[in-house]
Structures are given as structure tokens and as C-alpha cells.
Amino acid sequence: MENITNTHLFGILLTVGLFYLITLIKHRSRQNWLNPLLLSVIIIICILVLTEIPFEHYMKGGSVIHAFLGPVTVVLALPLYRQRKLLVEHKYSIVGGILAGVASAVLSVVGLSRLLGLNELLERSLIPHSVTTPIGISVSNMLEANEGITIISIIITGILGGSIAPVLLKLLRIKHPVAKGLSIGTSSHALGTTKAIEMGETEAAMSSLAIGVAALTAVLVVIVMQTMGWY
Predict the structure, then answer these.
(1) Angstrom distances, CA of residue 175 to CA of 161, 163, 167
(2) Where do the H-state alpha helices sit in the chain?
(3) What is the reported pTM?
(4) In whole angstroms, how large is the CA radius of gyration of the chain?
(5) Which of 4, 45, 167, 231 has the CA that lies 20 to 30 A from 142?
(6) At what angle do helices 8-29 and 55-67 cross, to 10 degrees?
(7) Which of 4, 121, 110 lies closest to 53 in space, CA to CA?
(8) What dihedral angle (degrees, nearest 10) is formed by the CA atoms of 144, 148, 151, 154?
(9) What's the whole-number mean pLDDT along residues 150-167?
(10) CA distance 172 to 224
(11) CB-based contacts of 105: which residues, under 8 Å, 6+ apart?
């Protein structure tokens, strides 16, 4: 058994196979609550725990999939290029919206962490929760935080953002495609952007833009916080 699990192919097939299977079931059943990413993570964890397969074995293939995260994020620039005229037209609103989103994401974590009495390590680890994973890990290292907690918080934020975004946008009566895309990309990075892509090309373009700008802004905010001696 170890000869099978301790290979790159095991992690790749397990991850891709589960994701594809759940996606297929979701489309055929038309049940929106079936989130392929969330369910894949839960099922993989259960499989590894119940079969006592070492996490290191799974990550041989998992690391291959993780390596594609950066290039896939860059590919999201394509819809942005197609909507470049819209970007110029709404440049001030776009910049202001992203800055406000990043500020609220960071301040809400700091404020709630201190209100609830969380320790400083956990607070530091949660600060990059709305930043795309590659940059979020870098921010976590800058803050000398726990990288594992940061990654989990990023995944949960992205899944929740993509799941509840349509409902919140409807409740708040936000109808402009630029506003929709910016709010999703700023708050729930690449995972949320998958939902923006389903909404339309403009939403996808704005959400893709928000991922990069929000990540850069978050890095700058952390640098300022460290310069001021907050961390």
C-alpha cells in the first residue's frame, strides 16, 4: 500500500478525481451547496486519517498541484485585459474600493482578535486571510506567524466568500458588475473569483484585478504596521 500512496500520482489522482466527481454531482443534481473545493478538502482529510496515510505521502502529489497556483492566478489577467477600457473609466472607484476592502479585512481581524482575547500569534496568522495564497504565505512569514493557520484561513475565506457572495450582493442590492467583481476579489481572492467568473466577464476582470492590487496593498499595510512597531 505504501508503494502506491508514497508517489506523486497518488496525491494528484486523489485530489483531481474527487474534485471532478463532486463537480459532476453538483451539475447533475443542481445543488449549489455542493462546494467541490470544500468537500474535496474534507473528504481527503477523512481518507488520510482513517487509512493512516502520512500527510507527507499525499503532499508529494499535492505539491505538484500547488505549484500551478501561481500560473493560474496570472491567467486571470486575460479577462482584465479584455475589460481594460472599463478599468480606465472606473479607476478611482476601483482603487478606492480595493483600499477600503483591504483596510476592513485587516482591521476587522485585529479588532476582533483583541476583543475576543486571541493570542498574538493567532492574530498575526489571520491577518492575510483575504490575500491570495502565494502572497498570503509571504505576508505570514513577514509577520512571523503560523503558515499553516494562515493557509487554512485563506481557504476558508475563499470558500465562504464564493458561496455567500451572490446572496450578500442580492441582499445589499449591489447590481453594478464592477462593484460585484471588486467586492468578491478583494474579500475572497482567487477562490471567490471562480464565482465572479460565473457571473460574467466584467465581474471576472474586476475580481482578477482586485486579487493583485489587494495582495500588494496588504503587503504595504503590513510593512507600515511593522515600521510603526505594531508587530
Answers:
(1) 17, 17, 12
(2) 2-5, 8-29, 36-51, 55-67, 69-75, 77-82, 84-89, 91-116, 120-126, 133-142, 147-171, 177-199, 201-227
(3) 0.75
(4) 19
(5) 45
(6) 70
(7) 4
(8) -80
(9) 86
(10) 33
(11) 129, 130, 186, 187, 218
CA distances from 72 to 65, 91, 135, 151, 210 (A): 11, 25, 14, 17, 15
pLDDT in tens, 81-122: 777 787 788 888 888 888 888 888 888 998 999 899 988 899
Phi and psi angles of residue 216, each rounded to the nearest 5 degrees, phi first? -65, -45
Which positions ≥6 away from 103 have C-beta within 8 Å? 221
pLDDT at 2: 64
Are 64 and 8 within 8 A, CB to CB? yes
How far apart CA 225 and CA 231 sit, in angstroms, is: 7
- The three cell numbers of residue 65 are 498541484
Are the beta carbons of 188 and 160 closer than 8 angstroms?
Answer: yes
* Alpha carbon 10 to chain centroid, angstroms: 25
Q: Burial level of 125, CB count in 10 A (0-12/13-18/19+)?
A: buried
DSSP 129: G
CB atoms under 10 Å from CB of 223, counted, come to 12
Buried b (16+ CB within 10 A) or exposed e, 167-199: eebeeeeeeebbbbbbbbbbbbbbbbbbbbbeb
Q: For residue 117, count other CB atoms closer than 10 A to its CB.
A: 6
Q: Which three cell numbers stand for residue 141?
A: 512569514
